[in-house]
Amino acid sequence: MSDSEHPEQLEILIKPSRGDKKTVCVSSKATVAELKDKLSELYDIPASNQRLIYSGRILKDDQSLEVYSIKSGHSLHLVKGGSKSGAQSTSMAVQEPQSRAQEGPGATHGVPTNIASGAGTGNVLSDLTGARYAGFANLPSASMFGPDGGMGPTPDIDQVLSMMERPGFSEAMQMLLSDPDTMSQMNPMLDSMPPAQAQQFREFLRTPEFRQLMSDPQALRQMFQQAQMLRNLFENSGESGGSFGGFPAPGPTEPNDSNANSSGSGQNPLLSFLGNSAGNSNNQFPDLSALLGSGLAGSGAAAAVQEDSRPPEERYEHQLAQLNELGFYDFDRNIRALRRSGGNVEGAIDALLDGAF
Amino acid sequence: MTATIPRSFRLLEELEKGEKGQGSEACSLGLADSNDINMTMWNGTMLGPIRSIHENRIYSLTLEAGSDYPQKPPKVKFLTRINASCVDDQGNVISSQVPCLANWKPEYTMEHVLLDIRREVGSPANRKLPQPEEGTLF
């Protein structure tokens, strides 16, 4: 291609998967290995971990650049191979907590099993709204979420239910519910309970019946309908409705005998739950409604309560700085990606790399 | 209604985009043989979708833009071994399993195809499938 007598000086743009684009000058006679050596100084990636891609090909170390007919102004993708970039993503992608073992065979198949392992933003459910799942068929469509990854005030029940009826959701929900840590994170009320009760409550949450209930769209539909009925009832009779008005913050939780109900007499927990709440007696089940609310709404319910009114550049200041460091300079794009991912930087990066915006 | 863009214009455009790396950073595309004036055989790479078993892997593929491209979709084949529902045991991408191939439109580019395959490979059904040893070929 190039004149073999006079090696050309090539100006090649290097596009790393993370970090700044840089232009390097190399001779067209240089081998790929030599280029990698050069790049190892620029990018702090050992040459042996570098993968260079040009025009749909992975460049081989012993070849010279002219073999690939790379020209000035062309760009190479630099991908870090071999070792992992972040310990967190490793564990998320590969690890399956042992507690999953109790799930039936195939229960977790095709479901993001890392759902319960928590992402950086502190809300175990934030993954649900993350851009990293954008396009995954069994997750709610973007239209369900408002800006900033939260949902609108209260998700429409039918919407929620139709989301739940999608394949995979009930498994994901089951898994989520089977993890006691998730539960306590989702519901800080648990922490404020006397330990003995909290324990009991947790145990109740972990019973297969309860999980079944929470992840069965049919049962939930029923529950919603009954709640709706009760609410109408309260409204009609002029009562405040206490714990049912759109599932607000849970009422006081005092110890009483109805605990016995909770840890399971084996009856339909739904009925006892509704019964107790209808009576508005002191019991711990209002927690359930809050739980249900926040559980279903993902991070949305919590987010919706305290809507963040700060402008995005302020709210995502930290994340934006990170994205900038990684070489994403387009402010608008970054904001959009961050909003879509609910402020999760990794999610935003995925979206940006996928060119979804 | 709209005039159809001649095949060669389209492919030259895609070639330039590939060489300059203007497309998505997750995929790369180029002519298999830069002397091929028909621009039929292409190489593609795709980075394994993040947060899947494919993360940090690079997959090589070939794309064949036939004489009726872009009216007809390219034929796509994996060179790197991969276990995914949209790839048969020869490495051929099964068109019906990839949305943009199944419902091909002439506006689609080979980059679309690569990104769509990548999305498919990272889908819940595929993202955790056991994979052959890294770098082995079909």
Automatic annotation (TrEMBL), chain A:
Coiled coil: none annotated. One of its GO terms (biological process) is ubiquitin-dependent protein catabolic process. GO terms for molecular function: polyubiquitin modification-dependent protein binding. One of its GO terms (cellular component) is cytosol. InterPro entries: UBA (IPR015940), UBA-like_sf (IPR009060), Ubiquilin (IPR015496), Ubiquitin-like_dom (IPR000626), Ubiquitin-like_domsf (IPR029071), Ubiquitin_CS (IPR019954). PANTHER family: FI07626P-RELATED, UBIQUILIN. This is Ubiquitin domain-containing protein DSK2.
From TrEMBL, chain B:
This is Ubiquitin-conjugating enzyme variant MMS2. Transmembrane segments: none annotated. CDD domains: UEV_UBE2V. It comes from Wickerhamiella sorbophila. Keywords: Ubl conjugation pathway. Residues 6-138 form the UBC core domain. Pfam families: UQ_con. SMART domains: UBCc (SM00212). It comes from the Eukaryota. The lineage of its organism: Eukaryota, Fungi, Dikarya, Ascomycota, Saccharomycotina. InterPro entries: UBC, UBQ-conjugating_enzyme/RWD. GO terms for biological process: DNA damage tolerance.
